[in-house]
Design brief:
Oligomer: single chain
Number of domains: 2
Radius of gyration: 20 Å
Strand content: 25-35%
Shape: elongated
Structural class: alpha+beta
Mean pLDDT: 93
Number of strands: 19
CATH architecture of the largest domain: Alpha-Beta Complex
Order of helices and strands: EHEEEHEEEEHEEHEHEHEEEHEEEE
Length: 274
């Protein structure tokens, strides 16, 4: 197996640390899928040291609500340069932007200047459109306040019937240029230490705040839910036995698997030949 393949095991669900909140609808859909399939297909991605969740927040909350004591995880070294952190932009399909009912200062700018200002944390949020861009400022930059502003604006836009979707930085700009989005909302980047502090303190960021970039991802383990009702030691033993009966097919980064494009290389679990 490649050195990029992460350690996989089962740990106590109470030891995991989310750093983002959850969305009720997404949580309902994930929980329904888990209850229907009675298995966790993909392990939750965590930092090996702190057990902060890097990816799989809704699976974590769903498994907690199902009464699971254990959870399957793939462990990565968060301090390593091989693990990166990026942001999710919001794509808006409304031609008009309605600012939230809170004290913000607005300046108009071009797209390049707006991106630089929010990336360098000179602004709390950027609204970028083809006809012009806006920068939103609050007194005294603070990362949680910036994301509170993002969440508030996103909520108000949805309440007014505007379509809001999530996209990577490159994809959101492509959607804007192609006319598939009227605006994109760009938040400031969250740093690794800020995500970790949120996980430890419990002061969580909104959903889709961070996008963690990992070197590889194992998928399709299909760990039975009933195993996760056991204590971590028993569940971990069963997961190791499952791994011994699987072979992993490596797929290059950028491939599309089951309709999803993966930026990292993927290891697909398949039953070993007898």
């Amino acid at each position: 197996m490649s050195s990029r393949f992460p350690p996989i095991t089962a740990v106590a669900i109470d030891e995991l640390r989310p750093h983002e909140e959850y969305d009720r609808k997404i949580l309902y859909d994930v929980a329904l899928s888990l209850q229907t399939e009675r298995a966790v297909r993909d392990p939750i991605i965590v930092d090996a040291s702190s057990l902060m969740i890097l990816d799989g927040t809704h699976r974590y909350w769903a498994l907690r609500r199902m009464g699971c004591l254990s959870v399957p995880v793939a462990m990565y070294d968060y301090a390593s340069n091989s693990v990166g952190i990026a942001r999710w932009n919001r794509c808006i399909d409304s031609p008009a932007i309605f600012l939230p009912n809170r004290k913000v200062r607005v300046e108009y700018s071009n797209a390049g200047e707006a991106l630089a200002a929010v990336t360098e944390r000179r602004a709390s949020l950027a609204l970028i459109g083809l006809s012009g861009s806006q920068l939103l400022f609050e007194d005294g930059f603070e990362i949680h306040r910036a994301y509170s502003l993002l969440s508030e604006l996103e909520t108000e836009l949805r309440a007014k019937g505007c379509g809001v979707s999530y996209a990577t930085e490159d994809d959101s700009l492509m959607r804007l240029k192609s006319g598939k989005a009227s605006w994109i909302m760009v938040p400031p980047p969250i740093r690794k230490e800020e995500a970790l502090e949120a996980a430890i303190s419990g002061r969580l960021f909104p959903i889709k705040s961070t996008r963690h970039i990992i070197p590889s991802r194992p998928i399709k383990l299909s760990v039975p839910i009933e195993w996760l009702m056991d204590d971590p030691e028993i569940a971990a033993s069963k997961v190791q036995d499952l791994l011994s009966r699987l072979s992993f097919r490596r797929v290059e980064a950028g491939a599309i698997v089951n309709g999803r494009r993966y930026e990292e290389e993927v290891y697909i679990g398949e039953p070993s030949n007898p």
